[in-house]
Predict the structure.
Amino acid sequence: MTRESRAGYCATSPELELWLARHIEQGFDAESLVLSMLRSGYDATFARDTVNAALGHRPPVRQVPAPAPVVTRQAAESIATSAASPIAVSPVSSSTPSAGRNAFRHEGREVPILFALEAPRILLLQNLLDGTECDALITLAHDRLQRSPVVNPDTGDENLIDARTSMGAMFQVGEHALIQRIEARIAAITGLPVEHGEGLQILNYKPGGEYQPHFDFFNPQRPGEARQLRVGGQRVATLVIYLNSPPAGGATAFPKLGLEVAPVKGNAVFFRYKQPDGTLDDRTLHAGLPVESGEKWIATKWLREQPYRSRG
């Protein structure tokens, strides 16, 4: 048995070097790059050394165990050389803030981390969008607003329920230049490629509007929710962006954690529910609390474990 078949693929290529350069430029951190290479079948030592060399003067990558699944050399080459199917970069690592990172940077924009919770993984990001971008998304959504449905867990159909009282507008991935720019920023910060995101959803809550406690991930034991897994796999994380600052109410609450995130224009809360061992963290139960004064506008991005395609 060769070293490659025992431990993983150990050869570099111009395509891999280009892939690393492109993702480093987009702001992906060292650990995300190493984990992506491991999941694509690369040898752990080779992945760490290659990423460290590509990062140059940047801090070394912490030791990461190789994953159990072994990908063939042919599959690894295919992933590395396909521009249409880049290696899937993992979500923001649970160790990122402890490694000294206090902000993300993308195309000249700095996005400070206001707080980070380790388990479950929750980040509050400041000024993910500027005021002009927030206002522009609201303007784009106005003509599309309709009552927001939820997925029926038994049938998979989208139904209206009293627990969710918002109006919403859905956009296709990359549908508008502004949305393309925002989606690229989200990919750089979360570590998941644009293709893993569902379309951006803009939501509007009037006074009294709320979304009662719920999970964003799907329950594969319920036939209706299992249908959703066929178009991108499980949801792994959510990003909620606040497009305005309501005078009162409208916080995002995590009742099992005793945590409430106030809606502040331009800020965003990111939370991840799929854990490294594949289990789903029910501590990410969350709610949109009732709006007490004014109205609330948010943009929601759900992120999948695989490239997402609409059911059509």
About this structure: The chain has two domains: 14-56, 106-304. Confidence is low (pLDDT under 50) at residues 1-7, 57-100.
